[in-house]
Design goal:
One of its GO terms (molecular function) is O-methyltransferase activity. Keywords: Methyltransferase, S-adenosyl-L-methionine, Transferase. One of its GO terms (biological process) is methylation. The chain is an alpha/beta fold. It has one domain: Vaccinia Virus protein VP39 (Rossmann fold). It is built from 7 helices and 7 strands, in the order ααβαβαβαβαβαββ. Strand 2, helix 4 and strand 3 form a beta-alpha-beta unit. Helix 2 packs parallel to helix 3. The longest helix is centred in the C-terminal third of the chain and has 18 residues. The chain is globular. The N and C termini lie far apart (about 35 Å). It binds S-adenosylmethionine. S-adenosylmethionine binds next to helix 3 and strand 2.
Length: about 200
């Protein structure tokens, strides 16, 4: 994981990666829940993907999606070196059509132990509508960046960077919707940029 972090730090988008503490948290969480069948939306260079792959058993699976294969391939050699690449099925695609296709097949419903969402922040609520059907009862969905640089608790007129302002309303809308969704119980963790864990109840 250290090697992949160092590699990612040299990449121009490195601010977008999951933080080291989030990676360690994900790794431990997945071991604790004995996750086997998982999904990740938003791979980038694969830091959170590696943290997940290392936690799964030898026959564990991760369906990983990203619109950019090039960045995934940058980190892939580290994932291969760690001996966990066989657990990953990478799809170069926007996540939404892949989710819609998965939902067409009844056997995918309620089949995922864990789903990590870290892409396309203004679509999280649209993902949630689909993911709640795909995760198993008792399984977890983790939404990354739900603190959104602290902006979700900042005063309305606080000076914010442009990209923070851009997604702030979407993240706040997601947080409010998750808090009142009766199908889940949630826990918002102030790790990294905030991860909201949602456990499906029914
Ligand atoms: C924040 S990065 C992911 C970081 C990664 N989880 C990690 O911890 O290193 C977001 C990624 O989402 C991808 N992305 C953006 N829109 C997407 C979409 N609609 N579907 C899937 N991936 C998308 C981007 O290409 C980018 O690599």
């Amino acid at each position: 994981m250290k090697e992949l972090r160092e590699l990612t730090a040299k990449h121009p988008w490195n601010l977008m990666t999951t933080s080291a503490d989030e990676g360690q948290f994900l790794n431990l969480l997945l071991k604790l829940i004995n996750a086997k069948n998982t999904m990740e939306i938003g791979v980038y260079t694969g830091y959170s993907l590696l943290a997940t792959a290392l936690a799964l058993p030898h026959d564990g699976k991760i369906l990983a999606m990203d619109i950019n294969r090039e960045n995934y391939e940058l980190g892939l050699r580290v994932i291969q070196k760690a001996g966990v690449a066989h657990k990953i099925e990478f799809k170069e695609s926007p996540a939404m059509p892949v989710l819609d296709e998965l939902l067409q097949d009844e056997k995918n419903h309620g089949s995922y132990d864990f789903i990590f969402v870290d892409a396309d922040k203004d679509n999280y609520l649209n993902y949630h509508k689909r993911l709640i059907e795909l995760v198993k009862v008792g399984g977890l969905i983790g939404y990354d960046n739900t603190l959104w640089n602290g902006s979700v608790v900042a005063p309305a007129d606080a000076p914010l960077r442009k990209y923070v302002t851009y997604y702030r309303d979407s993240v706040m809308e997601l947080n409010k919707a998750l808090a009142v969704d009766p199908r889940i119980e949630i826990c918002m963790l102030p790790v990294g940029d905030g991860i909201t864990l949602c456990r499906r109840l029914r």
